[in-house]
Specification:
Structural class: alpha/beta
Strand content: 5-15%
Number of helices: 24
Distance between the termini: 55 Å
Radius of gyration: 21 Å
Largest sheet: 4 strands, parallel
Shape: globular
Number of strands: 8
Length: 416
């Protein structure tokens, strides 16, 4: 797609990157076929091709409007379109740039600005944990809309204390330790059962995605630099062999550190190395399966029952990791099924999307749950805290991380 940058964007990093992405687009429209918001709304401007045209117009000098902003806001950034695109258009990077440029020119209503500020400053804040604890204490008194955002308190179980020669770094995350602490401890226990020690860096916090995707790119990059500084001594010394992510939303962001900080003279090289070392937890499964198989009993596997698996967009589209979780869990002996229809589509969580676009988000959630519950499972599994919390808010079935299923089966045999 030929693009003629307006003078204000010529020779700028955003302008040049966006132009390079746009030139790959052949406006074929294959992307619309797999876009969740296009399927719901049927509006060309609520599909990737239409949003690409809107961003192109802005880059060529057309003044964006509030309507432009709303169409970009309604994008989930699920990146399903990237999996579909035959030309390799990096839509996720393009929409990040487009939103940033539009927000610089279109004033948001005060209420909207306050909500977005509260999300990007509040969720990664140290105050989030006590606020969540307080919310859980009065959860039964909260209206349904708030109860959906406050999961019931969870017993995390013990962190393993054994020392192993093999070590991996893990990002605890900003909301996961408060909302679902068992995911982290289950991860550490499962890896411990395989002779791998999980370590964390106390000064590492939010991966940066929250602020970055709410158009605070500078704030997001600050979080990235803090994490790199916290991890670097362990990485540089060779003490850890990988940085393991058990939240696919964080994983896709950390793997992209090299791109996000490519123009930073101090952090560019370090960011590339951090991204290269980062693995989703599921990427370890091929070597974990033979180590775990002898530790699982037929009784523990049968007790798990049939589980429906929802692959997060950040895993299957953002990281391009498809089929691994379900394949290896089945290899371990679990009964796992993926929805026969629309397993590639977003559940509607999409970071802060469920707060900022609740109506669309709930439609996508209920559509997803309809396909999952049609399998008649005993529970639902996923690989990202956002998806897990969002799906749980609309389902009476237990929804949890797949590593919790493995950990539970190991604990029932006394192996963790």
């Amino acid at each position: 797609m030929q693009t003629h940058l307006a003078p204000e964007y010529q020779n700028t990093a955003d302008g040049l990157e966006a132009e390079a992405i746009l030139r790959k687009c052949v406006h074929c429209g294959f992307c619309n076929a797999t876009c969740p918001t296009y399927q719901l709304l049927g509006d060309e401007l609520d599909g990737p091709r239409g949003r690409i045209y809107l961003i192109k117009q802005v880059l060529e000098g057309t003044e964006p409007t509030r309507k432009t902003q709303l169409h970009l806001d309604r994008c989930l950034t699920c990146r399903n379109c990237e999996s579909t695109c035959p030309s390799g258009v990096q839509y996720g990077h393009l929409v990040d740039i487009g939103r940033k440029l539009v927000d610089a020119k279109v004033e948001r209503p005060l209420g909207e600005k306050l909500v977005r500020w509260a999300l990007k400053e509040g969720l990664p804040s140290p105050l989030f944990a006590p606020a969540m604890k307080m919310g859980q204490m009065v959860r039964g008194l909260l209206p349904d809309s708030l109860q959906a955002k406050v999961p019931a308190p969870q017993n995390a179980g013990p962190w393993p204390t054994a020392q192993h020669d093999r070590k991996v770094l893990m990002l605890s995350g900003c909301v996961q330790p408060s909302m679902s602490p068992n995911i982290n401890t289950a991860t550490a226990r499962v890896l411990d059962a395989c002779g791998i020690q999980t370590v964390t860096a106390s000064k590492a916090g939010c991966c940066g995605a929250l602020k970055f995707h709410l158009n605070d790119h500078d704030g997001g990059k600050d979080h990235m630099r803090i994490n790199i500084d916290a991890w670097w001594p362990l990485v540089e010394s060779g003490e850890v062999e990988a940085i393991v992510m058990n939240a696919s939303g964080c994983g896709v962001m950390v793997k992209d550190y090299g791109h996000a900080l490519k123009d930073d003279p101090v952090y560019a090289e370090k960011a590339q190395r951090i991204g290269a070392l980062t693995k989703d937890l599921s990427e370890l499964l091929p070597e974990l399966v033979p180590l775990l198989q002898p530790k699982l009993t037929p009784e523990s596997l049968e007790a798990a029952g049939l589980q429906a698996y929802h692959p997060p967009c950040t895993l299957q589209h953002g990281q391009q990791l498809r089929g691994g979780v379900e394949h290896h869990l089945i290899e371990l002996g679990f009964q796992i099924e993926v929805a026969a229809s629309e397993s590639h589509l977003c559940c509607g969580s999409a970071g802060t999307y469920s707060v900022l676009n609740p109506a669309l988000s709930q439609q996508l959630r209920d559509r997803k749950l309809g396909h999952l519950t049609a399998l008649h499972p005993q529970g639902v599994l996923s690989a990202n805290i956002g998806c897990i919390t969002h799906l749980q808010s609309g389902s009476g079935l237990p929804v949890r991380h797949w590593v919790e299923l493995v950990d539970e089966a190991l604990q029932s045999t006394g192996m963790t």
